[in-house]
Amino acid sequence: LGVLDGQVAIVTGAGQGVGQGIALAVAAAGAAIVVAERVEATGRETARQIEARGGRALAVVCDVRRPADIAATVDATLAAFGRIDVLVNNAQIVHRGPLETLDDEAYDETFDSGPRATFRFMKAVHPHMKARGHGAIVNLATSGAVRWDAAGYGVYAAAKQAIRALGRAAAHEWVRDGIRVNTIAPIAMTPAMEKWIEEDPAGSKAFIDSLPTRRIGDPELDIGRVVVFLVGPDAAYVNAVTLPLDGGQAYF
To answer: Which residues are catalytic?
Structure first.
């Protein structure tokens, strides 16, 4: 039996990369997965992979920048599975680069898809988790916020630090409702990472060499399985932490 048997998890941005890896791992632990993904085709593909492994999944088209989509995802989850036990706020539009190259639109997209969406989604699931007296939320931050060289990471890192602050507040305010909130800061092999390695072999090699493990994490095995622990019964005393999943590089 899986440690999450009978539970239901919403994973945003689960159509690829880290979100997909988390969805696959949480499904393998026994939970039904709601794949909340902006791109319908990739969301359906993740759901198909989960079902092909014998799991339960529902793909829901969700742009986390839209409050109506968040509400609809919660409603669809309750209609399909009757409960919400786990929320993973993974979706994020990323804009990196020097501050002078980023405009208000890039700033707004980063914050709307990151801290604002995290704020809204946490509040949307809270009453349902509180009613059951049980829930676990995992948000995503970045080690880019604690880099030795912050150049090029300003807006993205600021948004992720806001997510950490919101998560800690929720962790302290809701723990008596039976809800735990934690944050992970992963480095994993994603389509964006693969593209960077292809386009900038020297820069990406220097980055990988800066990791103590000298390798990029696997979205399911290295990231997803840790999320299974964080939302599962063995982490009942783990709350309000930021856990770097990068082989030891970040220093929070």
So the answer is: 156
